[in-house]
């Protein structure tokens, strides 16, 4: 079968392409403004990429077109597709029908941490010898790909709440019908399609309706919005977890992590009440990552992996690309790449790096690029999310029309807004010093600033 994928270079659709290729199908696809790592992954799989969305690509005469949610009515290719009569579907529907049927689906949902949690969970299952399939919205370094079929029963899917396609406005995850579901956290995000938290909670409630009675929901008991979803109706057993002991509701037995006050969470204990179930030693800093790991351990336990096996797996977990990934060290200056774009994720990432580097100068560079950020939905929380950085640079792209400088004014002179990425690179080169840690955060390619900055730093050192 010939499958043609529109929006193929998004992490999800790129994963669909990889799965279809592995299943023996001919796969082609198109996208606009592609950037690594997904473009590199697709090329390595021998998938033909077409730049742009010209209607002429339908002359390839595919058997079916898989439409990504970046496509909308009015796009000339979409209008030509509808007129052509060629069958079409969405990525989540294709995945559910052609991959997930008959598998033990483990779905990782939540506003933050989905990619890391899904990557950890997949590695635990792999370490246990279960050869899981997976589709993750990033590239785990243990696998070097974002998706694979696997031969075992488990299939791990990053369960995104964003809408499915222009013809299906339900959340992607309602297609997956998981046996094991993780609800990591829940905040207002995707403000372009969800007006408030309640509208997102409604979608999460639909997900819970599909988990069977012999399934499991792993839920963050410290997140009030998650617990409200559970309270509205859950027909499956629930394992509660949190990042620390909870004072409220003493009858609620929950798992939590424990770490020394000065620790960076690369070593932490897994607790249930006062009982220690084991101690994790791994390479990932930050409380948020410890919580992600605990959720993954509980989900893997439901799929038959002993906790001690899961804990042992974490020792060899290598991380995920674009999650506090060190892109290079030049002149004693360390440059990191991170996907953080929501204020909560920005704050958690900066806190994790601060714990790791101690009193060294931490320079935060943020591109407000997501649809929610472009709308200015979280402008009130922006300054607070950057508080632990010593120096803050923000790139205000042409699609961001609200007052970014005003939002970060509480940070005083240590924050500056720049509207040209080339100028931003120049300013960084002229102000960075040996020993600095530069944390660059964006959910896009950020005009390749990471590589440009490292090249310029190298040039100035010669």
UniProtKB/TrEMBL annotation:
Enzyme class: ligase
Domain named Mur ligase central: residues: 108-300
Family to which this protein belongs: Belongs to the MurCDEF family. Mpl subfamily.
Enzymatic reactions: UDP-N-acetyl-alpha-D-muramate + L-alanyl-gamma-D-glutamyl-meso-2,6-diaminopimelate + ATP = UDP-N-acetyl-alpha-D-muramoyl-L-alanyl-gamma-D-glutamyl-meso-2,6-diaminopimelate + ADP + phosphate + H(+)
GO molecular function, one term: ATP binding
Domain Mur ligase C-terminal: 322-444
PANTHER family: UDP-N-ACETYLMURAMATE--L-ALANINE LIGASE-RELATED (PTHR43445), UDP-N-ACETYLMURAMATE--L-ALANYL-GAMMA-D-GLUTAMYL-MESO-2,6-DIAMINOHEPTANDIOATE LIGASE (PTHR43445:SF5)
Protein name: UDP-N-acetylmuramate--L-alanyl-gamma-D-glutamyl-meso-2,6-diaminoheptandioate ligase
Pathway: Cell wall biogenesis; peptidoglycan recycling
Pfam family, one: Mur_ligase_C
Cofactor(s) needed for function: Mg(2+)
InterPro entries in the cross-refs: Mpl, Mur-like_cat_sf, Mur_ligase_C, Mur_ligase_C_dom_sf, Mur_ligase_cen, Mur_ligase_N, MurCDEF_pg_biosynth
All copies of domain Mur ligase N-terminal catalytic, residue ranges: 2-99
Task of the protein: Reutilizes the intact tripeptide L-alanyl-gamma-D-glutamyl-meso-diaminopimelate by linking it to UDP-N-acetylmuramate.
Keywords carried by this UniProt record: ATP-binding, Cell cycle, Cell division, Cell shape, Cell wall biogenesis/degradation, Ligase, Magnesium, Nucleotide-binding, Peptidoglycan synthesis
SUPFAM superfamilies, sorted: MurCD N-terminal domain, MurD-like peptide ligases, catalytic domain, MurD-like peptide ligases, peptide-binding domain
Any one GO biological process: regulation of cell shape
EC number: 6.3.2.45
Gene3D superfamilies from the UniProt entry: Mur ligase, C-terminal domain, Mur-like, catalytic domain, NAD(P)-binding Rossmann-like Domain
Organism of derivation: Steroidobacter denitrificans
Domain of life of the native organism: Bacteria
Binding site for ATP: 110-116
